[in-house]
Amino acid sequence: QLQLVESGGGLVQPGGSLRLSCAASGFTLDGYHITWSRQAPGKEREGVSCISKFGGDTAYADSVKGRFTISRDNAKNTVYLQMNSLKPEDTAVYYCAARRVPSLLCLMISSGYDYWGQGTQVTVSS
């Protein structure tokens, strides 16, 4: 079965850190742009970060710049989102998505992905 599986979510205090993982099953992530997005209760899904297929391009939402870092290890078929200095407003379900396009630049678009994960809950609370 071809799918993305997120992991690493959980409950963390404000100021804490988490590392999310997005692993591919049944296919290789090599050649896919990967986007992390999140959806908080009552809010629309928003792009958080993306990384290009070879890792040469990354992008971040203004709300997470300087705190989140996206990376990929194609040998492990996994993309990571390191989240530091977490805030209560970071609380959401986090999703990863894969998109195969010729461009070398990633975009945090909301549709047009080939695969989506099921999401992992991140809760930032004291």
Write structural notes for this entry.
The structure is a single chain. This protein is mainly β and 126 residues long. It is built from no helices and eleven strands. The strands form two sheets. Strands 2, 4, 5, 6, 9, 10 and 11 form a seven-stranded mixed beta sheet that branches. A hairpin with a 4-residue loop joins strand 7 and strand 8. The mean pLDDT is 95.
**Runs with pLDDT <50, length 5+?**
none
What portion of residues is helical?
A: under 10%
Q: Round the mean pLDDT to the nearest integer and report it.
A: 95
Shape: globular
The sequence of SSEs as H and E is EEEEEEEEEEE
Oligomer: single chain
Backbone CA Rg: 13 Å
Sheet-strand content, in percent, reads: over 45%
Structural class, by secondary structure, is mainly beta
- In angstroms, what separates the terminal alpha carbons? 38 Å
User: What's the number of helices?
Assistant: 0
Largest sheet: 7 strands, mixed
Task: Tag the structure with descriptive keywords.
126 residues
Give the helix/strand layout.
Blueprint: E1 3-7, E2 10-12, E3 18-25, E4 33-39, E5 46-51, E6 58-60, E7 68-73, E8 78-83, E9 92-99, E10 115-116, E11 120-124
Brief rundown of the structure:
The protein is mainly β and 126 residues long.
